[in-house]
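B., you asked whether I could sanity-check this one before it goes into the benchmark set. Here's the sequence:
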Amino acid sequence: MTNRQVKQLLEKQQIIIEELSKGKGKDNWDKLATLSTFLSSIVIGIIGIYFANAYKSQEIAFKAQEVRIAETQVVEKFVPILAGNDENAKKGALLAIASLNNKDLAIRLGTSYASAGTIEAMEILFKDTEGESKKLLRDSLIDALYSRASTDTISYDQMVSDVNKIFELKPKEELRTKWDGYFLANCYRRRAYAYGGLEKYDLAFNDLQESLKIIPNYFNSYWDLGALYRWRNDSEKSLEKALEYYDLAVTHKATGNIFFERGQLHRELNNIDKALADLEKYLNFRPSDPQGYYEMALAYMQKKDFGNAHHNLKKAHEYASNPIQQPMQSFDPNQQAIQALIGGKIEEIERQMGIGKPSKIEQAQPIEEGQSPTKRSKADKIEQAKPKQKPNLLNKISRNQIRSRRRP
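And here's what the prediction gave me:
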């Protein structure tokens, strides 16, 4: 019983007493005296019940606080294990937490630290659980599988397996209600990404079409279709189709990294002005990304605008040499390779502009008897001075990095 309810009962008693007191005669006063004694007994009883309930509520609150403290102590002990790399230890930790009659905490931690070990533990708990708790555990297991499938650190086969398990655990009709359909659409997208990596291009295409049935005009699905046609290694590879899907993605509100990929694609198709326009939009989004400036430089080089190409290469080298200036999403373990590639391209373009120093290769090149150093052909110099890295190294790095930035 709440304070408000007690107050209302006391107010009603007061009204009854006032009404009876308005009457005249001995009978009314006798009734009032008798009724007052009765009502007072009720009020005393109500107040007793109120304080008993208040004490019980306080006791429950104390117990809840004790549970929270115990959970905190468990988390402090087991989180370092769950955040580590030993999958067997993770599995053991989660099962140990569940054995302490704290299965709910084990489920929450398993969802937060989804990996092979924690998911295996959750699958064991799922098999041993019945009733309503099994439904809750199933939903948590689905979330954990989705979380793992959304990372780029697992194999393509594992991604396919995780999505297939999600579809086995819950009918697709029910999954369609989760996140207004985006959960199911993203499951298809993630499996399509894995199929693409496995070179099962038809299966990837079918999954992306399924995602578009669930969320019509979903820009991420169009984006993925563009990437599929751009990077596939069979006869169906088509930069033109890739561009069509990239255009659809932009039409339906894709922004940011899409301009980097479409800018690259325009350059590959020799649409240089469109490439420069897209790359400029990308650099407005990530103004300190060396890859954006490198792509701008390549586009200007194709346009024979060596001045702007040199300027953008310098900017690329500046940001590549100072990764602290880059956004966190731009961190790249291949930073040294990128710096070397950009540096080699700068030397190449400076020689073409006539402002660079001779390369070490040129300095060491023997000169035939009677040949003047100035007589050596410009083409020979450029060919000898080409950097040893593969020309498409940065593009490959860019592709993997950009795709990893996007939400799956």
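One thing to flag: Confidence is low (pLDDT under 50) at residues 360-408. Otherwise nothing jumped out at me.
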